[in-house]
Amino acid sequence: MINRIAVVGSGVMGRGIAYVGAVGGYSVTIVDINEAALQNAKQEIDSIFEKGLARGKITAEAAEQARRNLSYESNLAKTAAAADLIIEAVPEKAEIKKQVFETIEEHAPEHCFFATNTSTMSPTEIASYAKRPEKTIAMHFFNPVHKMPLVEIIRGLETSDETAQIIKEVAEKMGKETVVINEFPGFVTSRISALVGNEAFYMLQEGLGTPEEIDKAIKLGLNYPMGPFELVDLVGLDARLNNLKYLHEKLGEKYRPAPLLEQYVKAGRLGRKSGKGVYDYTNKEELVKK
Fold it and tell me: What are the backbone dihedrals phi and psi of residue 35, each rounded to the nearest 5 degrees, phi first?
């Protein structure tokens, strides 16, 4: 029985996961060693509640209960010791995930399940950082978590049927649709999204069209809700580049990152979070438009 969830990492994905977990009725603790990041996460989550209330997406009573379900903590060991499920949502770097899993393995109770929020990395490899591979799985949430309906659930080599079923039920209680798949680099969604996004950068590099024209063509011609440049600015150009490098290593040349994407990242143009990516968000009117 899952009652208490710890979410490790208070970035965009971590706070989004914490929000849907709390709204779903779970007692959720967000853990981050950076107190300023925790405070920022609280402000962002409060903003999601306020917007949801204003738009009628959530009732005042439900919002108040969800707020009571949330807590914020900087001590991972203490939080892990009380958790039934730990969802790791730190950056897509093996060394960072390894540190987290080694710590939670040491302090989490025996019954606790481990999940990694990853868009490309191997849940089998991540499970090897701890000692309970049968209780470890990947939960791929999508950004923005409170709006995107899918959680892609990826079984590792030794993930048990019980773990897959329990995590599926957790995601559904969070209000999500699910697909449960077996591990392969990039899973389903990231392989397709990375190809489309990378090809868009090649098009831009070749002078085929402006970002606005390419985004419009993809949205209206292929019925995508967002253009590839709008999407990469949302998820972060650095995150997309990291994913492409991993897929290029594992799956070959078709995932080689476009040189223009690498240039943008080197220039610090990381998307909305840095104020400028493919589009410029420093102008408030432009930000509203996008």
Answer: -65, -35
Preceding amide of 144 cis, omega within 30: yes
**CA angle at residue 228 from 226 to 233, to 5 degrees?**
90
Q: Give me the residues of the chain with pLDDT under 70, please.
A: 284-290
**Nearest CA-CA partner of 47 in 7, 8, 71, 19:** 19
> Over the stretch 88-140, which tens digit does the pLDDT of each residue have?
999 888 999 999 999 999 999 999 999 999 988 899 999 999 999 999 999 99
Give the CA angle between residues 137, 76, 80 to the nearest 5°: 55
* Cα radius of gyration rounded to whole Å, the chain: 19
Handedness of CA 272, 277, 283, 288 (dihedral sign): negative
Taking CA 94 as the corner, what is the angle to CA 147 and CA 17, rounded to the nearest 5 degrees?
20
The DSSP secondary-structure symbol of 262 reads H
Q: What span, in angstroms and rounded, lies between the C-alpha atoms of 255 and 261?
A: 12
User: Which tokens sit at 89?
Assistant: 């949502």
Cα–Cα distance for residue pair 228/247, rounded to 1 Å: 18
Residue where the block lists tokens 């779903």: 24
